[in-house]
TrEMBL record:
It is found in: Membrane. It holds the Pfam family Zn_peptidase. This is Metalloprotease. The keyword Transmembrane helix applies. Residues 22-46 are annotated as: Disordered. Residues 32-44 have a biased composition (Polar residues).
Length: 235
């Protein structure tokens, strides 16, 4: 992420929809540049060929930008003190923080854990998308999980029954809002990366265990709604 043009990613996201093939493609699908990973992305194996430090920089920037956006928005628009979720951060495989009654984390996943009020992600999931799609993958996943944390803070009647699509919408609102606030900037290619990410993580991809994330078109549409209309359009 680096330079933003107004509605630039919205336009390209919509265009890119046609390029996504099925909801079950691995990250990058058939349209991606050749994979630089040494193992198939979905095996949960270690992805070696990633600049881990650069990736961690993006994770830190994504957390900071999304957190800062929601801090401002919550205090200014909701008139509430902002309590951020804890960032349990990166794990690998089953060694992530336990959530509720689950003793082990889910490999190759990213999660907002409501009982523990934290977000966490498998570094191998991040690395696979980072190498095969690009840095926008990191931003979207963190903004999406943060969206679930925001849902947990909303009055229940403001949380959509389509909670996953609403989280995508909140992710779009937060990333666009953070760009508007100068916290991040969008660079050419980000919008296509966002579309590829949403297509890759649509139903059947083991990003989460839930089956209601929606198909690629629904997810891209939800993200775009947040980009164009902001938080109000999502809730
Ligand atoms: Zn989700």
């Amino acid at each position: 992420m680096a330079m933003r043009t107004a509605l630039g990613w919205l336009t390209i996201v919509l265009t890119a929809t046609a390029c996504t093939t099925t909801a079950t493609d691995p990250p990058g699908g058939s349209t991606a540049e050749p994979s630089r990973t040494t193992q198939p992305a979905q095996t949960g194996g270690t992805v070696g060929a990633v600049d881990r430090e650069a990736m961690k920089d993006d994770e830190r920037t994504a957390v900071s930008a999304v957190d800062t956006f929601w801090r401002r928005y919550t205090t200014e628009q909701f008139g509430q003190p902002y309590q951020p979720p804890r960032v349990a951060g990166a794990y690998t495989g089953t060694n992530g923080p336990p959530c509720g009654g689950e003793p082990e984390s889910v490999p190759f996943n990213a999660v907002y854990c409501r009982p523990g009020d934290f977000v966490a992600w498998d570094e191998n999931l991040m690395a696979a998308g980072y190498s095969q799609i690009g840095d926008a993958w990191i931003y979207l996943i963190i903004a999406h999980e943060w969206g679930h944390a925001i849902q947990a803070r909303l009055r229940s009647d403001r949380v959509s029954v389509a909670a996953e699509l609403q989280a995508d919408c909140l992710a779009g609102a937060a990333l666009q809002g953070a760009a508007d606030d100068g916290l991040i900037a969008v660079e050419p290619g980000d919008s296509e990366e966002i579309a590829k990410t949403l297509a890759a993580v649509a139903d059947d991809y083991p990003w989460t265990n839930e089956s209601d994330h929606g198909n690629a078109e629904q997810r891209i549409s939800a993200f775009d709604t947040g980009v164009a209309g902001g938080v109000e359009a999502c809730i």
